[in-house]
Amino acid sequence: MSYRVIYKETPLPRATPARRQATMSSSEEFATEHQALGRARELLETGQHHSVAMHDHSGNELSGVRLQWRLGGFAGE
């Protein structure tokens, strides 16, 4: 199974609308759910990303409150 973590940088408060729109999304692939949850936790804890979502091999998405709830039960490494 594969998991994908998708994230977007936090927009700059004084950026022009065009600059905010140009903020790119990034994604990373992981072989296990454990690895993907670990990376999602890292991204959320740094506070440098506007949004973080995780997709599994079936296309199911965890984001927002559901992702935070899932991470609450995740001990990390």
Q: Which terms summarize this structure?
A:
alpha+beta; 77 residues; 4-stranded antiparallel beta sheet
Polypeptide structure, described:
With 77 residues, the chain is of the alpha+beta class. It has one domain. The chain contains three helices and four strands. A four-stranded antiparallel beta sheet has the order 2-1-3-4. It is globular, with a radius of gyration of 13 Å. The two termini are 20 Å apart. 14% of the residues are buried. The mean pLDDT is 79.
Secondary structure layout plus pairing:
Blueprint: E1 3-9, H1 17-22, E2 25-30, H2 33-46, E3 49-55, E4 61-63, H3 64-72
Antiparallel strand pairs: 1-2, 1-3, 3-4
Summarize the structure.
The protein is of the alpha+beta class. It has helices at about 15-20, 35-45, 65-70; strands at about 5-10, 25-30, 50-55, 60-65. It has a four-stranded antiparallel β-sheet with strand order 2-1-3-4.
